[in-house]
Amino acid sequence: MGDPNILIWGAGRIGRGFLADLFQTSGYHITFVDASEELIAQLRRAGRYTVVRAEGVEKRDDLVIYGYEAFSTAQTEEVAQALAGADLMALAVFPRDFATVAAQMIPGLQRRCTLRPSAPLDIILCTNLAHAALEFSAALHAVLPEDLRAYVEQQVGIVESLVIRMVVEPPAEERRRDPLLVWTNGYAELPVDQHAFKGTIPSVRGLRLVDDMRAEEMRKLYSYNTFHAALAYWGALYGYEHIVDCLADAQVRKEALGALDESSRALQAECHFSADEMARWNEGVVYQTNNPTLGDRVSRQAADPMRKLRREDRLIGPILLARKHAIPTPHLVRATAVAFLYRNACDPSAVAIQERIVQCGIEVAVREICQLGPEEEDVVTAVVAAYAEIKNMRLGANATESVNVP
After folding, report:
1. Helix 146-155 crosses helix 98-115 at what angle (to 10 degrees)?
2. pLDDT confidence of residue 215
3. Shortest CA distance to 402 belongs to which of 235, 238, 241, 253?
4. 92 vs 289: CA distance, rounded Å
5. What is the pLDDT of residues 246-284, one digit of tens each?
6. In this structure, are strands 59-66 and 69-72 parallel, antiparallel, or unpaired?
7. Domains in the chain and their CATH numbers?
8. Residue 43: burial class (beta carbons within 10 Å; 0-12, 13-18, 19+)
9. Which residues have C-beta within 8 Å of that of residue 291, sequence separation ≥ 6?
10. Distance (Å, whole) CA 333 – CA 231
11. What is the pLDDT of residues 331-380, one digit of tens each?
12. Is 192 exposed, middle or buried (0-12, 13-18, 19+ CB in 10 A)?
């Protein structure tokens, strides 16, 4: 019997830079599928590319990915055959593409049902979205022919995962040397929902089996993403370009760590993580973030503030969770306020927020963008007060300095 094979649908940074790394290292043959014919052509011409695992200034490990196959979604026959023969599938696309991918999978599922009706197919979803399994399952069932419904219900597992590995833009000289090179922080674990598999759980180094995926999703979003958002929005206010520079600033670091601590206490109360467990986890959050070799930019972590200010996302989400457990959140409230102060003319979401503030005022903007109801007026009031205080403080203290406030 040959090596097991995995079909990685989505050959972008996560597909190439994390999933291919994880599964090739465990002996899997890789097949990429992607909508970009140009990217697929590059992969086929090169025959190999490099994944950089840059864990720190003195710790870099390069892995060459090779021996793979690569098909564009326009190659319908080849994609159907690859899907029919795969032992496992991973989906690394944006949630907005779920419906398109689901429709493109149908010929392969039909062929698999005919040729291998008793062979389970588990699909690991690798996308930054809570409850991704519900959304992808809905998209798939919306396009399933009647004769495939029973087969998919019995044999296809939709497995949620948490992608924590950071993938950033490589240094320019590295990118010129290898346009396919992927620059990562080398984070080695992929937590997966162990209860969602229909087949045998694959033996893959780095695959961490999770019992309560909802709790794990919440912890990742309300720790890593909360910490990064707080650093980015405070850092932008102080004029920093890189995340490590934000961490190096004592005041910005204090605010971000304060937000992380408040969120952590809420997670302990809600999900019953122990204090020691959360302390170890948070040490990892800070360690993984404080990596100058990544060159991670404030603009990347601050991007799309409209989404990041939504009710269940990384700022308002932990505020409401802490509120549920009567935990004060002054740092989280201030981080939310500086997100409303974030300005970036190249970010349509940031521009839209500033336009909304001008049109209707900060109070209405907070209420609408954060999706807060009448029963949460205390949160609105707190964010508005912090917004006014920080804006006035920065304008007053830096009257001659160019700062990032509207």
Report:
1. 90
2. 94
3. 238
4. 22
5. 999 999 999 999 999 999 999 999 999 999 999 999 999
6. unpaired
7. 5-211 (3.40.50.720), 214-397 (1.10.1040.10)
8. buried
9. 54, 55, 56, 166, 185, 244
10. 14
11. 999 999 999 999 999 999 999 999 999 999 999 999 999 999 999 999 99
12. buried
Phi, psi of 190 (to 5 degrees): -125, 100
Give the list of residues 6+ apart from residue 390 with CB closer than 8 angstroms, or none.
237, 334, 337, 338, 341
The predicted-structure confidence for 192-243, as pLDDT tens digits, reads as follows 999 999 999 999 999 999 999 999 999 999 999 999 999 999 999 999 999 9
Q: What is the pLDDT of residues 104-127, one digit of tens each?
A: 999 999 999 999 999 999 999 998
**Please, are residues 376 and 384 in contact by the beta-carbon 8 Å criterion?**
no
CA nearest to 30, candidates 18, 41, 42? 18
Say what the pLDDT of residue 294 is.
87
So what's the pLDDT on residue 1?
Answer: 55
Residue linked to tokens 């598999």: 197
Q: At what angle do helices 132-143 and 98-115 cross, to 10 degrees?
A: 60
Q: Which residues of 379-388 are buried (b: 16+ CB within 10 A; e: fewer)?
A: bbebbbebbe
Segment 79-100, tens digit of pLDDT: 999 999 999 999 999 999 999 9
CA distance 350 to 342: 7
